[in-house]
Structures are given as C-alpha cells and as structure tokens.
Design brief:
This protein has 72 residues and is of the alpha+beta class. The chain contains 3 helices and 3 strands. It has helices at 9-18, 51-61, 65-71, and strands at 22-27, 30-34, 40-44. The chain has a 3-stranded antiparallel β-sheet with strand order 1-2-3. The radius of gyration is 11 Å and the shape is globular. The chain starts with 8 loop residues before the first helix and ends with a helix.
C-alpha cells in the first residue's frame, strides 16, 4: 500500500492546476477550482490536509494515489 505525503492546500492547488483546474473563487476557507469540462473541486484552505480529506480530493481530481505522489 502506498503512503500519502503530508501536503498543504496550496500544494494541492498547484497540483490541480497542472491537471487543468483553474482557480474560480475562494469563499471563506474553501478554494473552488474548475476544469474545462466544468467539473468543480473544493479544497479547504489548511496548512496540512487530513488523510481522508486528501483522499476525497484525489478522487475528485480523477487520479490515483500513486499519480498524486509523483506530482508532489
């Protein structure tokens, strides 16, 4: 089983932008991103993301844990 790295929300936003997501807006402590297909992903603005939250974001981005780890 592959272990996930500890990352900040800023790092996840950078990875999402590499995957074609663009910043739409920020409401409170949540960053809203959108890709060209119109799919929306919400990322909480935290110094470090919890494992479960990170897994949900990875799933929403449509990549595997291994692909995510390579992009970090």
């Amino acid at each position: 089983m592959h272990k996930l790295p500890v990352v900040s929300s800023a790092k996840v936003v950078k990875i999402a932008s590499k995957l074609g997501y663009e910043f739409v807006r920020q409401k409170g402590s949540h960053i809203i991103l959108k890709n060209e297909k119109g799919e929306i992903t919400v990322i909480p603005n935290r110094k470090t993301l919890k494992k479960g939250t990170l897994l949900q974001i990875i799933k929403a981005l449509g990549i595997t844990k291994e692909e995510f780890s390579k992009l970090v």
